[in-house]
Design a protein that fits this description.
The protein has 219 residues and is α/β, with parallel strands linked by helices. Helices cover 16% and strands 31% of the residues. It is built from three helices and 25 strands. The radius of gyration is 18 Å and the shape is globular. One of its GO terms (molecular function) is nucleotide binding.
Amino acid sequence: MSKVFAVYGASGCGRSLMPVANEQLRILEGDTDSQIVFIDDALDDNITVNGYTAMNYTKFKSIKNDDKFVLIAIANSSIRQKIADKLVKDGISLWTVQGMTTLIMDEVSIDAGAALSPFVTIAANVTIGKCFHANLYSYVEHDCIIGDYVTFAPRVSCNGNIHIHDHAYIGTGAVIKQGTPDKPLIIGKGAIVGMGAVVTKEVPAGAVVIGNPARLLNK
């Protein structure tokens, strides 16, 4: 029996990731029989989005197939976690998708549900948690540890020996200075690094930093 794959979310993020997901399925995995659809609870049922069938989660769940895989294409990390918990509870697998031009080096561990857009690079000896989003042209350099539900906007430069905790958001074009093996640079849980910020020191949990060099906006 063929499998069923879905991209959860038919907004901009999902519509950008769908062709990446479809390309992976058809070319990298050689699977031409499986179905791929959008899931979006905000849309009317039985419509198409960019040529793909879209349905709500209830209908997707009702499809009689034991092999279902879902990529959660929603930027809000809290919503991403709620959906991931729902999928796991319902026995539906998290799907990791990466672009054909994504480069992953040696000794890299990436947990389930990652969305790695085209031209993303993950360097050697990196550990990444659940449902990581890395948008176009972002990179993670060597010896970094990234938690669950972390989001990179496009062109994030995450240099070596950096620890980014769960639910952190790193804005477009941000640069995070390299840490050291004995003192990694830490981005705390739920922190937000603003667009174009240059981070040279630790960012506390829940903080928002902006500018060059990055400074605390609020906490």
